[in-house]
Write a structure and sequence with these properties.
There is one protein chain. This protein is an alpha+beta fold and 312 residues long. The chain folds into 2 domains: 175 residues, no CATH class; 125 residues, Cyclophilin-like (Cyclophilin, Beta Barrel). The protein is built from 4 helices and 20 strands. A 7-stranded mixed beta barrel has the order 12-19-16-17-14-13-20. A hairpin with a 7-residue loop joins strand 16 and strand 17. The protein starts with a strand and ends with a helix. Keywords: ATP-binding, Hydrolase, Nucleotide-binding, Transferase. InterPro entries: CT_A_B (IPR003778), Cyclophilin-like_dom_sf (IPR029000), PxpC (IPR052708). GO terms for molecular function: ATP binding; hydrolase activity; transferase activity.
Length: 312
Amino acid sequence: MAHVSGFETLRSGPLASLQDAGRFGVRHLGITQGGAVDLHAWAWANWLVANPWGAPALEITFGGLQLKAMEDLYLAISGADLGAEIDGEPPPPWSAFMMRSGQVLEFKAPRSGLRAYLAVFGGFQAEPVLGSCSGVVREGLGGHDGQGRQLAVGDRLQVRREAIENTPCNRAVPEIEKLDYTGLAELEFVLGAQAGEFSGVSLFEFFNRQWEVDSRSDRMGIRLQGPALKCAISNMVSEGLALGAVQVPPDGQPIVLMNDRQTIGGYPRLGTLPPLACSRLAQCQPGSEVSFRPVSLERAHRDYIEFVRRFQ
């Protein structure tokens, strides 16, 4: 199958990179997971253009990105509303559509949510590194160039060549899956091994107070501001960290560890957010509020498996 230049980057924006489902089986090497931080929106974007699970899509954070189509392309955009326009006209959100050669797709600024996902029929082409195309800047792995860089002006995104006449029939995302990112995010939470070391007051406040998303948040972790949580453990031997692990450093302000997190850590963990709760948190703008509700590990695992099976 021939490869062609699907897009040329006219303006790079602050954060845009290729992300797939993540890099697994390498954490013993100190290499992080990577992958789409909003797995929910990423999966639906690929589904709309009939791409298989795991296909790389472009994750656009904050907007500011401008791409020129180098040929006719069949696209889908999901996730945040970043004021996308094609030659000045907004494309349909959470839908697939045609973009013609020479047209310019622009993402402006967040209106709702924080991260949009752009998938293309046929899939973006990039060389896997350790089994994944996900770009991780800190580790210099993956992405469109194999070195983890964010998109820069002049970069070209390669697209697998597919006949336009073979594009899939129109698919429609169920309305219930088109999430509202403007309201309070109520996130499921699985209590962890050190939960019993936190004071009763801290546990009560964690589940009964709203927490504010700190501006010091990125793909590594999302900091939360609220009442200081108190834990009886002051020193721990570092242990492995899963996606969504909620560490509580000495200042008592929790940090939710995301896709580009470190692989081990020594702060006590109150518990873990399931993957779909991490997806919702990834769309929370700084200053927005979240709350937590407990869920069993079995329920969280079952919900995640059912979600993934929808796309396989």
